[in-house]
Amino acid sequence: MKKQKELSQLYQAGKKELLKIPGVLGVGFGSKETGGTTTDITAFRIYVKKKQALSKLSPEEQIPSHYGGIPTDVIKIPQCKADHCQDLGNYNKVVGGISISNLNNYMEVYQNPEPSLVEYQFGSIACIATIDNNNDLNKYTFLTNRHVIAAQGGQNGDTIYNPAIALNAANQPTVALYEEDDEDDENKDKVGLPISLNAIGTVWDHGIHENYPYEHEGQVEKPYFIDCAAVKIDTCISSWCKTNCGTNFKNEIKGLAIDGQNDIVGIKHITAADEQTPVFKVGRTTGRTVGKIVDYDGMAEFPDFAGVGTCRNIIIVEITEPNCNGEFKFSDSGDSGSAYINGEREIIGIHFGHSKDNRRQSFGGYIYPIMHRLGVTPITSNNADQVQDARQEAPVILTSEQGSNAYFSHLKLRLRQDATGKALMEAVETYRSEVTGHVNHTRTVTVAWHRNKGPLFLQHCLKSSRDASHFLPKEIEGISFVTLVDKMIEILKAEGTYALSKTI
Rounded to whole angstroms, what are the CA distances from 296 to 27, 29, 283, 313, 444? Predict the structure, then answer.
């Protein structure tokens, strides 16, 4: 078996020669296909617009059966379809594999007094990352696809949600907006009802979906198709206690379960030697799927987006085990943005679509060009020491386990045993992310919070929840706690979602 360096040199030489043949659009390296099914035979995968009989080709157009002892395989360039769809559940931590949407259409009309049907699209989170060369405590992002963020006219600054919804009777991605006391039960059965918005971040870099020039160490520069974007997580890292009192996150992919572990260990740039390597993905629709790399330098046409055209130097993965639905589909609508992870739990790329021609195959972009374009580095177990503080659970009053002690646990138990206390805790957990987002990013809320000594009162609340001898002061610098609460109620009812306003 040839070594990695030999394979790489042979591939580069073969690609250079085979691209000279008229009609050849690109040359990949991976698994040979026979009758639409991949085999274990390694081959030069030669992409053409249309496959023709040998008798119809001139001698200079004919592709040799082998190059350097490696077989060739002529492949009609596949058509790519982007993946985006609806979601059903939300989570109390931002991790890879969970569903996201900007909900722009929903947010535009939710204050409309008339019931409305709204359509929206979803994708998935790849992984958690840090912004390079940034010493800010709030420097944490998650990665996904540009086409997920750009859905419904999305742009930089948009709020991104991990919402929970109920589908309508036809399982369509629609939501009806109406008063909670609407007695039209028949209407409620026919449409979806938003359960929780769960704001988790703000679009920090809208990213790109195009061929991006990148030179990996030891390789020549070439165009890599990447479909990527970064969303800044709504963290709130306290300079006072160095803990996160905003949106929780963790270096984990929900249900990844490689050797019983869900964390990402490292980052890898794959090469010709990685052909046939197992690949795992966890996305909103098909969940955890297992496949193998069939071309590490593949091509596809992407007609969904004007100006994209041909995607070059992409990762093509083919499913090897049936997914949770019993189908041989590595991905489906809603999985866009999920991470490609190898058997060593290293992230190698980010998924962006599947083949229209062969539903067993899906497409992803390389992770290193994505990192270079966005200026981010995925958090892994190997660099976890750099994010030790922010990886702690958010010490949110009455909801977080972080830093809990016997007194804190006793307070929670007492509250859960009381009907009013239980309702309060449920409301805090449901709207914590939304309120935190407003405090951090909505100017009127931020001003009211700071002007009425919110950060100082919060510090005392955190301390008193863990220390029975510490009491919450009635006033701080002439501002009473009651004044703070009244002001925040007033402003959040005006700026918050309809559901939050009704709950308040």
Answer: 10, 6, 21, 7, 50
Is there a contact between 124 and 338 (Cβ–Cβ < 8 Å)?
Answer: yes
User: If we measure between CA atoms, which residue out of 486, 496, 491, 490 comes closest to residue 445?
Assistant: 491
User: SS3 helix, strand, coil % of the chain, rounded to 5?
Assistant: 25, 35, 40
| Residues 151 and 84 sit within 8 Å (Cβ to Cβ) | yes
CA quadruple 298, 302, 305, 306: dihedral positive or negative?
Answer: positive
Chain centre to alpha carbon of residue 355: 20
- Whether residue 456 contacts residue 474, with contact meaning beta carbons closer than 8 Å, is answered with no
Amino acid at 458: L
Residues in the chain: 504
CB-facing half-sphere around the CA of 264: CA atoms within 13 A: 33
Average pLDDT over the chain reads 81
DSSP code, position 367: H
pTM over 0.90: no
Residue entry with tokens 């997580």: 233
- Nearest Cα residue to 90 out of 171, 195, 192, 193: 195
Number of Cβ within 10 Å of residue 475's Cβ equals 13
If 0-12 CB within 10 Å is exposed, 13-18 middle and 19+ buried, where does residue 102 land? buried
**What token pair was written down for 350?**
């980010």
Q: Per the structure block, which two tokens stand in for 147? A: 């086409």
438 DSSP β-pair partners: none
Q: Dig out the tokens for 80 from the structure.
A: 């790519």
Question: What's the distance, CA 163 to chain centroid?
Answer: 13
Bridge partner list, 33: 38
Whole-angstrom Cα distance, residue 294 to residue 38? 7
Region 253-272: mean pLDDT is: 92
DSSP state of 62: P
Contact (CB, 8 A) for 367 and 269:
yes
Q: How does pLDDT run across 36-63, given as a tens digit for each residue? A: 778 888 889 999 988 888 888 998 999 9
> Any residues with CB less than 8 A from the CB of 423 and at least 6 apart, and which?
none
